[in-house]
Amino acid sequence: MKPQNTIQAVLTKKKLKPSLVFVLRLPAKMEMGKKRMAVLVGCNYPNTQNELHGCINDVLAMKEVLVKRFGFDASHVQLLTDAPGSVVLPTGANIKRALGHMIDQAEAGDVLFFHYSGHGTWIPSNKPGHAFRQDEAIVPCDFNLITGKCS
């Protein structure tokens, strides 16, 4: 089956290997000349019944760890938060756009990192044989759910 318009398809087209990367598993010293890029998303949902506290602090702390511990260039770490005065809000469209831009800039061997702090939810799964018939989705500040497809 040929991949559709998903992040997996984009990664396959660019010959990049998708993987889940956790900060503790990033090597302390990475190859020189390889880019390290990150998209960090924090949604506190201020002034809503779903308000959280600490998600923006999570991404600020994550940025500090990536820059100070793992040598990411701060200019290659994009923050999307719903803090007052944020330039780019973490809407569904903006998160997809930021991930797409990061993938477009990537070359084989680069490190791509995505971190999300906010609400998640379950949605019906269309995957045959999926045991629980549900998939996970992240919930951006505009409540436009992010599922496995990237358009």
Strand percentage lies at: 15-25%
> What is the tally of beta strands?
5
**What is the tally of helical segments?**
3
Provide mean pLDDT, rounded.
Answer: 80
Task: Estimate percent helicity.
Answer: 10-25%
Structural class by secondary-structure content: alpha/beta
Quickly count the domains: 1
Oligomer: single chain
- Rg calc: 16 Å
Strands in their spatial order, largest beta sheet? 2-1-3
State the distance separating the first and last CA atoms. Answer: 19 Å
Coarse shape: globular
Descriptors:
three-stranded parallel β-sheet; 151 residues; two-stranded antiparallel ribbon; 3 helices; alpha/beta
Task: Describe the model.
Strand 1 (36-42), helix 2 and strand 2 form a beta-alpha-beta unit. The strands form 2 sheets. The protein has a 3-stranded parallel β-sheet, with helices on both faces. Strands 4-5 form a two-stranded antiparallel ribbon. It has 3 helices and 5 strands, in the order H-E-H-E-H-E-E-E. With 151 residues, the chain is α/β, with parallel strands linked by helices. 23% of the residues lie in helices and 19% in strands.
